[in-house]
Amino acid sequence: MTELTHSNFLEDPSTGELDLEARASLRRVAGLSTELADITEVEYRQLRLERVVLVGVWTEGTAAQSEASLAELALLAETAGSEVLEGLVQRRDKPDPATYIGSGKVRELSDVVIATGADTVICDGELSPGQLRQLEAKLKVKVIDRTALILDIFAQHARSKEGKAQVELAQLQYLIPRLRGWGESLSRQAGGRAGGANGGVGLRGPGETKLETDRRRINKRVAKLRREIAAMDTIRVTKRGRRVANEVPSVAIVGYTNAGKSSLLNAITGAGVLVENALFATLDPTTRRSATPDGRTYTLTDTVGFVRHLPHQLVDAFRSTLDEAADADLLLHVVDGSDPAPEEQVNAVREVLAEINERRSEPLPPELIVINKADAADELSLVRLRHLLPDAVVVSARTGAGVAELVETVAERLPRAEVTVEALVPYTRGELVARVHDDGEVLAEEHLPEGTRLCARVRPDLASALESYVVDGSRA
Predict the structure, then answer these.
(1) % of the chain surpassing 90 pLDDT
(2) Which residue among 17, 348, 460, 471 is least crowded, i.e. fewest CB within 10 A of its CB?
(3) What CATH topology corresponds to 248-413?
(4) Is 396 annotated as belonging to a binding site?
């Protein structure tokens, strides 16, 4: 019998470690596929990707940017649980309206699919319903686009009730224009007496197609999900309203997916949330309380990661979550310093933030760039980033290097209390002294026989509570 040592009980696993173990415990076993043979049923089941071939259209930018986009698509496919076999890129002025890549490239792609034995083709772009139908008819395998792939990853990684509802809403919005009938013939439901005279106006004839029935049911489900998300948003607004009423500053962590946002949250607050070297590893926002070196309390929120060409359905579905970042007092924009093109990550994140801010009248909060993964980046890249982003803070969430400097910089950027008071608070009012320490910034403190003499920066409401004990002429 194995003897358990005392060290087994010294540390309990964090929530993130438990989540990571649960995620790793369920993996696809190669060779045990139960995929449906009829490719027309692709929209009616969850995507289970296996052996895939990638294809992209290079319309603008450099060849290196096109290859980087396809490499990112490969990482997305692997995150979804598939094996990438091959990747093709075609140079065109614009995607072909019928088949996305043109008839000649379709024949070449078909040969690659047959030679590799792939059962799925993933396109690096959003396909129209017509392009999707044409490609599946010509290639005889499953065809999905970048949007469907990202939605599938979100569906796998969403854990909270709100996250699952938001992902389902995005999936249904994507599905509605891509609904198709089963086979060549569409079944119909008769209206009235199916063409008889007693059916009534508008009810005579063949009736309603199965496609229309599905679309109506999906629209009803979308309306229900919007109501549920609005109700959850009310709870979020209420919680945030309490923090605003107490004037607790808030900091939101934003950035490209897999830039190390959750790792940074753990390094600063010890939150213990899930950390994994994968795209979109964490979706549900996490808020933790922290404190500046001078004792001021603030909240730190980890938000969903961004990516190039983030689907508009996701931006709309996660708008309530992303608004949390837009309403913060400070944005920590995390950049992966080891990425080959970090400036493109910065531009992609700022584009999404600008899209969120279009419906708002207030400007976005101030931004603090944080270059993460300094331990994995080469020195030349870090020098170049320091030149491009001179006000950025360089850290390594894994080793802890630079985190203390980041905390001090956050403390400097957070809004401070507006009123400076000097008060002599009697010992019978110790709760006021405690409030000053919790909610204000103590500049000087002295214990006298009459009470505690304080010089502090506080909020206007706390300054009013101290009004009776303010030393004459000391309030500014």
Answers:
(1) 19
(2) 460
(3) Rossmann fold (3.40.50)
(4) yes
Query: What are the pLDDT digits (tens) for 82-95?
Result: 889 999 988 888 99
258 is in an annotated binding site: yes
| Topology, domain 51-155 | Rossmann fold (3.40.50)
259 is in an annotated binding site: yes
261 is in an annotated binding site: yes
What are the sequence ranges of the domains in the chain? 51-155, 158-181+212-247, 248-413, 419-466
Beta strands in 268-356 (DSSP E): 286-291, 297-302, 330-336
pLDDT band, residue 369 (cuts 50/70/90) = very high
Q: What does the CA dihedral 367, 75, 313, 323 come to, rounded to 10 degrees?
A: -20
Q: Tell me the pTM.
A: 0.71
Q: CA 463 to CA 127: how far, in whole Å? A: 60
Give 206's contacts (C-beta < 8 A, 6+ positions apart). Answer: 188, 190, 191, 194, 195
pLDDT tens digits, one per residue of 334-362: 999 988 888 888 988 888 888 777 766 67
> Which two structure tokens, joined as six digits, stand for 156?
């796998």
